[in-house]
């Protein structure tokens, strides 16, 4: 059965995506064709990782509710 929602039609926001499990997840999703936004509080590393994958990065501190809301507002826009 084919997937009605191919990865190429998806946008994935990977919070903590600059290292560890988040980085591995971002790599997998990008390899599957998804548009990936690597969201991390480490701006420099997130930018570097996003460039490695040809994707986008964003700075976010998950304890800042307004910052997280702004991130997702930007993604949706």
How does this structure look, described?
This protein has 77 residues and is α/β, with parallel strands linked by helices. It has 3 helices and 3 strands, in the order βαβαβα. Strands 1-2-3 form a 3-stranded parallel β-sheet, covered by helices on one side.
Short structural description:
The chain has 77 residues and is of the alpha/beta class. It contains 3 helices and 3 strands, in the order βαβαβα.
Average per-residue pLDDT, rounded, comes to: 91
Per DSSP E runs of 2 or more residues, the count of β-strands stands at 3
Structural class: alpha/beta
How large is the radius of gyration? 12 Å
The side-by-side strand order for the widest beta sheet comes to 1-2-3
Order of helix and strand elements from N to C terminus: EHEHEH
Largest sheet: 3 strands, parallel
Query: Unreliable runs, pLDDT <50, ≥5 residues?
Result: none
Throw out a few tags for this protein.
alpha/beta; 77 residues; three-stranded parallel beta sheet
Question: What secondary-structure arrangement, pairings included, does this model have?
Answer:
Layout: E1 11-15, H1 20-31, E2 35-40, H2 43-53, E3 56-59, H3 65-76
Parallel strand pairs: 1-2, 2-3
